[in-house]
Amino acid sequence: MDVRTADIVELLRQAGLRPTRQRMALGQLLFGSGDRHVSAEMLHAEATSCGEHVSLATVYNTLHQFKRAGLLRELAIEGSKTFFDTNTSNHSHFLIEPEGAVIDIPSDQISVAGLPEPPEGLRIAHIDVVVRLVKA
Q: Nearest 5°: phi and psi at 121?
């Protein structure tokens, strides 16, 4: 599924973000072909290989802006290793070790039971389940 430039402009505007050149370029890479899990370093390398001149700091800033706007979900999987997921629904993930690839677990293949009641005035926003896989 390819997303047109006009679709990226509209997506950014609906999220309250101005469609700058960098946001447009990174948005096209992130949202241009289905759901993805990327780190800032992965996205920076991809942008650079496409000829886009953008610093790693700009990539980090843009990813966090997209997250705050509700366009991405942040996954802290490996301590200091953070991935950003274009699928913002509440779902779980497989982590394929040692290569560090992240893939979605279909929601009908996992259930979580026995959740505690959150303290008064708070609600559960997401349940992050990461199932780690290794070669058999």
A: 85, 0
